[in-house]
Amino acid sequence: MVQSGKNKKTVTVIICLNLILFTLLVVDISIFYYKYSNSITYNKVDYQKNSQFLLDKYSGEFEALNKDKDKFQSFLDSNLIGDIYLLKTDIESNLNLLASSNHGDEKRLKRDCGEIFNHNFKKIFYSKQVLPENKINICLFEKKHDYIMGLSVSFYHTVSDSHDSEFKQWVLKNVAPYFILTGVITIFLILAALWSINRYYDLRAEYIKDKLKLKNELKEIKKQLYIDPLTNLSNKTTLMNNLKKLDKPKVIILDIDDFGVMNDYYGKDICDAILVYIAGLISDFATTNKMKAYCLGADRFALVENGEFIVEKYEDLANELIGRFKGRMTSIKVPNSSDSISIEIHTTIGFSVDEDDTLMKATTALKVAKNTGKDYVCYFKGLNKKDEYKIQIERSLMIRQAIIGDKVLPYYQPIFDRDGNITKYESLIRMINSDEILSPHKFLDIAKKIKRYTELQKKVVEKAIDELSQNLNLVLSVNLSGRDMIDGDVSLTILKLLANNDVADRLIFELVEDENLENVERIEKFIDKVKKMGVRIAIDDFGSGYSNFSYILKLKPDFIKIDGSIIKNIDSSNDSYMITRAIVYFARDLGIKTVAEYIHSADVLDICKKLGVDEFQGFYLGAPGEKVEM
């Protein structure tokens, strides 16, 4: 590529130089032709004879005026053809100017016909000088009795052909200056062209280099966003995207039993080695069976294929896969050591061959398999519906009572700047059930299913704005989903509350992932309205799910909150480190502040600071609480 660039540059220089030189040649030929065509004549002009005729005429006038130099001067003042001079030699043989048509301008005489002052005038003095613009100057002086009379006159100069005795002088005076000028201009143009070409190719090379670098960086970022950094398998986001392209998907989900307990017992390094080992085994199994392998999370994997297959095939595959672990001791190498340990790994499998909601159904089958202690379960209609419906009834009653009894409350988690100062709080929804404070994962999904989610979200926003109204130094961020922004009830409530309370400039909406985030047009309209009122926007959990760079460019947020799943491993995973660095650089170039979630140790905090993250949030710095402390 470098050699190709040099060749192109050389060709460009050669073409450019040829064009300049060709243009120079055309211009010079045109100048020569124009000058030559205006000066050529086939009848030779006798300049001395013409000059002698004029001189004789003035000499006759001088004789007619009785050689009176004063009268002759008056005559010259009113009758002028060329410069006429009347001179006389004194006793020291020096020429003195007596009269002239240019009022005694002796300097002009010496300039045009200076050689006469060294002439003895035993014969006529005659000289000619070729001038520019096709002119020739003639000097003719002769002795008239006691006087010397002469003239300096310019004639239109002509040449007969290139063999003319005056041709070389004509060229030097009429054409050569233009040739020199065009030559100088040509040199300037060549230098300018060479500079421009070098500059162009330098800038082009720099542009190509930057473009290639950016392309590689974006490719790497995209890879990190869609590839699990530990196992190097495609992640859940990739799986979700790929499932949309399949018309008859079949999904097998494998989960490592008691992985959390294993992690506590063996430690993170050993368990990471276990995951890498299983990922390799799953990948080989997928290749053998012409399937695609995915890593769905810390201890869960998926196998996917597309086509018409019977349930029995997947039962055989599940048995084969489980058979690779069940009752066997697996040797795992201890990281940074030559030792190995033997671990018995148990797995559970759920799979689905339905064409609709295949991943969800395979996940449901996995849950049933775990709850019933089976090695694997295939999803079928009605699977686990009874138990699910019972739980739904219990929690829907709890949600209803919480809304009526005002038991929906916010918890506030502080967000810190680089100096350790609290800049704002994130408002997190909680629910009181008897004496227990419930986290959102225990009631939000049910609330959506029973259509009580809107009431919960309105409560959250109302309480946040009420807190801002009471505490004028407080800045709060509130989570909003795509559903909230396109829901007329919630969005209208938000706009009314903002219009009636002067708190918009201290309120931040964090956009959280849901399926409605793809409805960008309606979301953009809502964001545009609240931004005009002073609200700022943050993208929550960036680096997972639907998060993508085009989404950032469309919504133009003020903050990007980097997903905790990336931050939590930043002190041990180079991939997490590289992803975080890329997001920080990307955000900084767009003037967007970054917030690191899940700060769980001093090491993680220090690394995030060194990478240039602006703000920090996590249990290491401050857990969510009922009150704010400003």
UniProtKB/TrEMBL annotation:
SMART domains (alphabetical): EAL, GGDEF
Every GGDEF domain range: 247-382
Keyword check for Transmembrane: yes
Organism, as annotated: Campylobacter pinnipediorum subsp. pinnipediorum
Keywords: Membrane, Transmembrane, Transmembrane helix
Listed InterPro entries: Cyclic-di-GMP_PDE-like (IPR050706), EAL_dom (IPR001633), EAL_sf (IPR035919), GGDEF_dom (IPR000160), Nucleotide_cyclase (IPR029787), Rev_trsase/Diguanyl_cyclase (IPR043128)
One Pfam family this sequence matches: GGDEF
Gene Ontology MF term list: cyclic-guanylate-specific phosphodiesterase activity
Entry keyword Transcription: no
Annotated ranges, domain EAL: 392-630
Transmembrane segments: 12-34, 175-197
Record's protein name: Diguanylate phosphodiesterase
Classification lineage: Bacteria, Pseudomonadati, Campylobacterota, Epsilonproteobacteria, Campylobacterales
